[in-house]
């Protein structure tokens, strides 16, 4: 791996790309929080809420299987090779049309089959019966077409990201949240009626997202035409890469189905508790993890393709540094402040303080795996950029088996807290295995400069955690008061943590100051030029 001075300015580019993606993702997350805050008060942790969360979870699980990780792992490196090769944009566009011609009919057929077998499928996953099964099946049939739409969004996102145009793809998820938010605002009666409105809003949001990405790709000069499906050499190469990645993603999604299987059997409300906890957990995951993974895959692929593995490793090192700089404080802050946060954001209406306590316990445990989960997003491009999608499959299988075993061991005595612990443990197991393999192959290692910065970040994070504990204890009466007092308490906790962590990590040298200064200078130059 290159020394600390290699690819000077690359870290600033990484921070800039991650900031663009993360900032726009944050917009989506804020809209998502508004949605969840309304939903908790209108729907509570009810039977209808559980049924909707099952209906929302199933197409999203398949989306992650077909439309995101696996597809990007196969498509982005191959698209980038053609884009920067002899054929240039024309060859990249032709490849995209060939993939679309095969990808779209496959998705439509898959969706139609599942619409037909939906009652059996939902019953097998959820264990529901009677009216609850009928409602969950009906809602899932309404949400399932979202799979086709969001998978096409992923195709266009891969194209735009390879062209270093991150804005539209990063903003698109906000449109789904806004569509669901409107459904909650205008259909506030709760129960099955609101659940149905939300399910319709999911598919409608998919149409809006698809429209935005199609228009953005066209503006970037990539206007794809529908072709007759043909098994061309380009498609053959894509399939060879994407099938192992799909199997790997399939293992992860099987794990998600297994979590759903256990959650629906823990008791009424468990799906809702987990959803609200995961909403807070997904904030740093989406803003940091997804942004980093999206930003570094094209860069790493480019360096590997150019025969510059040291620069590729350097990008991963910088991404790991940035990931820990943001994830360590996020994980500790969410774990320590879980109950005040959940109480302030979700409690009220049909969501009681007791519901908030269970949700907070789930959150406090699951976020302990947050740094590992984000590091996985940093490590996997080291495999995908080399068109090695088989290795992550093997590690995912081991993680899946471990997750099942831990669920059986931990859920009976601890309930939903045991399931959260299993998820956190398996996140670290996956992270460690991927790193060890990359290290042994000589593709990436934690060098001294990186280890030193992470250690300093950890010291600052521990100091922040102590400050958060003191603030939470001192403001305890606020969290038993009005909504305004609870929100003020959350602001005090978040603000206090930031005032401790960021100055301390700067003083200790836990982040590359030169890269940050370079980024600021570039922003100032751009502002002056504008």
3D structure, described in words:
The chain is 84% helix and 0% strand. The two termini are 38 Å apart. With 530 residues, it is mainly alpha-helical. Mean pLDDT is 81; it is low at 1-10 and 518-530. Helix 2 packs antiparallel against helix 8, helix 4 (130-143) packs parallel to helix 7 (191-219) and helix 15 packs antiparallel against helix 16. It has one domain.
Short description:
The chain has 530 residues and is an all-alpha fold. It has 19 helices and no strands.
Defining key terms:
disordered C terminus, mainly alpha, single chain, disordered N terminus, 530 residues, globular
Look at the structure and give the mean pLDDT: 81
Q: In DSSP terms, counting alpha (H) and pi (I) runs of 4 or more, how many helices?
A: 19
Structural class: mainly alpha
Question: Which series of helices and strands comes N to C?
Answer: HHHHHHHHHHHHHHHHHHH
Shape type: globular
Radius of gyration: 23 Å
Main β sheet profile: none
Spatial gap, N to C terminus: 38 Å
Beta-strand segment tally: 0
Q: What share of residues are in beta strands?
A: under 5%
Helical percent range? over 70%
Low-confidence stretches: 1-10, 518-530
